[in-house]
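Please decode residue identities from the backbone states below.
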């Protein structure tokens, strides 16, 4: 196994990147974006933003393997039934995480209590004298006699802090956050997968050749599923740029109706992108492109 190459992890028929460093390197140095499908470690209960792992398109995985940038591996241990020692290690690790979260919860609660301790003490003193503790009543000034009596009421600050802390319910194990690992934490044995079965037919072969050709022209290339096409081409990182091209991969002998052409052109015009049809040349050695746009459109051709 070549340690200088980035590891792509094969799981079933899909390829993932689990390392944050590898994700960043692929994006910045090799213009491979993929799609993050995991949750963010610090915000696991939301689904607006996604984190690792990154799922690669088959075309992206094939390109990275062909260019020698990555190697395809899998963890055979993940397919095996966990042994008793591994189960025990997992339970110990989960218990440790639970205890750490309980301690963190207590620390955060103590910070909250201390930040409002003066108000709590004043409220305790008012209750002792039978005074109102509602916010509207607190705004009214006290007469000198009442104010003096309030100042003379003694409150055990330490005992009051402990009383407030005792109100914090104990964290249940079922409510504790579960850590999602981006690497298998207890085993390092991996094997290299020599073969990647993509592309396996003429359609997949055409899509890969188109993907590779556009990528080699300097574009960032992603899936075009959300616009009903095969690929989207970006002039720069999709974080900072909008896509410019809607790429449809077509067999040279495939018939296309006028309705399909008009529909694709209208979508491209509406989202301010150029519609591009890509196919193999007659000799099958290169990719040929045909772009379509409205006559009065200001968008450039491909």
């Amino acid at each position: 196994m070549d340690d200088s190459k980035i590891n792509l992890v094969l799981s079933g028929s899909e390829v993932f990147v689990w390392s944050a460093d590898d994700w960043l390197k692929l994006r910045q140095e090799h213009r491979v974006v993929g799609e993050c499908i995991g949750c963010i470690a610090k915000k696991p209960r939301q689904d607006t933003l996604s984190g690792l792992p990154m799922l690669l398109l088959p075309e992206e995985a094939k390109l990275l393997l062909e260019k020698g940038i990555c190697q395809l591996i899998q963890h055979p241990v993940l397919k095996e039934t966990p042994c008793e020692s591994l189960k025990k290690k997992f339970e110990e690790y989960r218990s440790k995480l639970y205890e750490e979260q309980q301690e963190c919860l207590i620390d955060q609660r103590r910070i909250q209590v201390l930040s409002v301790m003066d108000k709590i003490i004043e409220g305790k003193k008012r209750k002792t004298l039978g005074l109102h503790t509602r916010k509207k009543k607190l705004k009214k000034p006290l007469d000198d006699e009442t104010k003096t009596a309030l100042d003379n009421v003694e409150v055990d600050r330490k005992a009051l802090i402990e009383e407030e802390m005792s109100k914090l319910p104990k964290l249940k194990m079922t409510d504790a956050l579960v850590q999602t690992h981006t690497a298998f934490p207890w085993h390092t044995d991996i094997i290299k997968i020599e073969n990647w079965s993509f592309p396996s037919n003429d359609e997949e072969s055409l899509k890969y050749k188109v993907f590779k050709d556009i990528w080699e022209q300097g574009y960032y290339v992603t899936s075009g599923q959300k616009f009903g096409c095969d690929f989207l081409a970006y002039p720069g990182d999709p974080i900072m740029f909008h896509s410019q091209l809607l790429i449809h991969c077509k067999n040279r002998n495939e018939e296309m109706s006028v309705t399909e052409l008009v529909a694709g052109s209208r979508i491209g015009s509406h989202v301010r992108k150029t519609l591009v049809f890509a196919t193999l040349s007659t000799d099958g050695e290169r990719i040929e492109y045909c772009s379509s746009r409205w006559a009065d459109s200001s968008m450039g051709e491909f």
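Observation: The CA atoms of residues 75 and 184 lie 9 Å apart.
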